[in-house]
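Sample entry (75 residues):
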Amino acid sequence: MEIYVSFNRTIVGYFNVRTFAGGAVLNVRGDLFRDLAGIHPRAVNGTVAISTDTWRTIKADVWTRRLNTEGAKAI
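Predicted structure, serialized as tokens:
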């Protein structure tokens, strides 16, 4: 099974990865995401399909952090 995710590279080289289905946002190490997702080293943003095993590997990495996007409120 494949999961479609969108990604944006941060200024420090990490990737903010968002799933289309659940909307979870993860901050992932750049080298890990590039190797597992198979994207070009100079990619800045885009969409890619990854397997569920790859998604589990990304979530299990010690440096992967879940971003809280629900707490932000418009003023």
